Amino acid sequence: MSGTWIEVCRTDEIDEKDVLGFECRGEKYAIYNTASGFYATAGVCTHEAADLSMGLVIDDIIECPMHQGRFHIPTGKAKSAPACVDLKTYAVKIEDGMVLIELPDGTFAESTA
Ligand code: FES
Asked: Measured in angstroms, how far is the CA atom of residue 65 from the centroid of ligand 1?
């Protein structure tokens, strides 16, 4: 995937085993600091659009705050009902203590039209 790297926050702004909400161009993202590293997924649950940044991080799982559906953070795979549609995931890199996520180029299409 080619895309644009966007700076989200400093690494120390997300506690270990926590999730931070991030919004860009009207889209919500969830950024995670887990024991296995930093990850990013879509910020809205695929079941009924709850804000996943309000959810609970349990190892590599995010539990939705509304109906407790669960997703595997690194892959976005839906793991337990009522969530059954996977989350989109985004590449993450750390540079100079900052967390960056790679958003698809189409994310910015309207700004260049
Ligand atoms: S809105 Fe997330 S499980 Fe229902």
From this structure: 7
